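Hey everyone, long-time lurker, first post.

I ran two proteins through the pipeline my lab uses and got sequence/structure pairs for each. Pasting them in order. The first:
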Amino acid sequence: MPKIKTHSGSKKRFKITGSGKVLHERANKRHLLEGKSSRRTRRLTGTKELVKADARKVERLLGKR
């Protein structure tokens, strides 16, 4: 049987932790930052856990389930 390939776009965007949570970076923090408030850009910093419904899909794309 052939092996299942990992989805290349997904492996660049998501990370699975040791406990199985799926993490992602928030959108809207790449460019045009001068127009966004400091409060908003601070809120967008860091990683966040993905919603469970979406996490199932991402796990499948990464070949974890």
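...and the second, right after it:
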Amino acid sequence: MEYQLHSHEFPPVWDMNSKVLILGSFPSVKSREEGFFYGHPRNRFWDVLAAVLSCRKPETINQKKEMLLTSHIALWDVVASCEIKGSSDSSIRNVVPNDFTEILQESQIRNIFANGQTAGKLYHKYAEQKTGIPAAVLPSTSPANAAWQLERLIAYYVKALNPVLHGSVF
């Protein structure tokens, strides 16, 4: 598989009430086809987030957006464009990062979480100095992260996100 240049083609999900920003690295092939975050059927992001929020797993893009916004969670990716081989995070090169200025100025976001090591490293390298907000790195919900079973992911995300979402850490 060869490198291909891709640009992020769908906007972040956020509003002025967003308190938490969760960042992925760059959309997978399936997410790019679907036009929304975490579109691969084996990615556990939506299962984990629904469990953290004690709600039903959203199925449609509109349901996913509603769940995020009603829970004060913003969602985006670190990378605006890059060269990538398929969906392989490890192949990402020639990164142009997203600009987080508007989302951080116009919302209540004070906590940023990276979904996986690659998102964390990319954020630290390309955006953290500009935003001034360090990102806590969460284990990846990708099916490639087979070492983390669903129950373990849920427990970790609950411990990380609940204090922030419910006001005990700011």
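Reply from user beta_strand_b:
Welcome! Quick read of the second one: The first strand starts at residue 4 and ends at 7. The chain has a mean pLDDT of 94.
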